[in-house]
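ugh ok fine here u go
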Amino acid sequence: MGLYTINELIFFQEDKMKQIFTTLVLLFSVEVSIAQDFWETVPIPTGVADEIKSIAISPTDKILVGTSTFTSSKLFQSTDGGNNWTQLTYNGMIVNTIMFLPNGDILIGESMGMKKSTDNGTGWSNTNGMNPGSNPFCLTRKADGTLYAGTSTGVYKSIDNGDNWARISNGLPANNPYVYSIAVNNSGILFAGVNELITGKGVFRSTDDGQNWVQINNGMGGQYTINSIAVKGNDIYCGTIINGIFKSTDNGDNWTLVHSRTASCKSLFVTADGTILAGFNGFQAGIVYSQDNGATWIPLNTGFQTPFNINTIAQNSQGIFFTGGMTNGKLYRSTQTLTSVEDGEITPINFILHQNYPNPFNPSTKISWQVPVGSHQTLKVYDILGNEVATLVDEYRDAGSYEVEFNLKQTSSLSSGVYFYKLQAGDYVQIKKMMLMK
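structure:
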């Protein structure tokens, strides 16, 4: 962790503004502690046009990454945590989803059907039973070994490790329902995220191994395209295309919005200790995570070189995350783990002040941060001239993650423009910029 001193910030003004600063000491001279970025790029030999569609990690930490362009697909393998990669021979189409089976076999759902390898990815063969043109988007597995695939023609089931598939879509929309996500809870209940433009979309549930499906959208306020579904204990989370993340605690009978975001939630991932990660692409791209069952969500984007569109998230046995998406074929790996949650308490591993959201904002925005030790903490807002305009926090707080709202109602009238917010927690000081647009 390095230490840097902000000495001054120079503002050049027009001649008619000579009375205003030529040199401005920005919020006094302070030491700023720069935390290590959470993400780093991985040296995978993808092309700049490649989109990383899927990542899977085996129990022995073998990593498979599927990429695609408009004309081709590639499959890469790493056995050393992502430091070195081998491109496997693969002549398939777009790799939507990858699954390692307990016996070591590998399934790939691609745009022309389901493929299987029984020799560690050296050779691939087509499986049987899916309708021509079925495009498998997702896979899930029950504790008894039964496999389920969500496709462009509904849901399919396999009881022989994916060699043969049978369509089980009674109750789903009839006109080729696109099933983008599928999950099973501890009781064996299945949940499918469906998109069908004419007759229905949203979440569908099956309590009889997929033979029959019932739509369950109560509380969502409409029929939304469901891109991702994840199960945490008895709770179900679903990510929508533009309406955020919903949660159900009663097997889908009722849903509550737990994270509002105008972006497509392409990936939901639940760790062994119960942390939930959500990956978005679109206008508000990036990753957020929650360690309190969806009550609060914290950005996790430091290290991404650009606003990063997330397609997929995976984690190895050491707790290291891998993620990829639509930006220049880049694969990212976490430089650290997310600490576990014991007795409902969050213990961050370093200081982080996150970018406010939304930004630009009007009339309010949220600011979140995390601190690994207890300290007296202040969070203040300044205008571009260094004048304090609001104090949002000024008190002792324990180690943890926090979020506050900055609302224009808390201040006198502010004009559109650039503002700064400064967190000070003990010796740690961080400053970020935000934009008010009226």
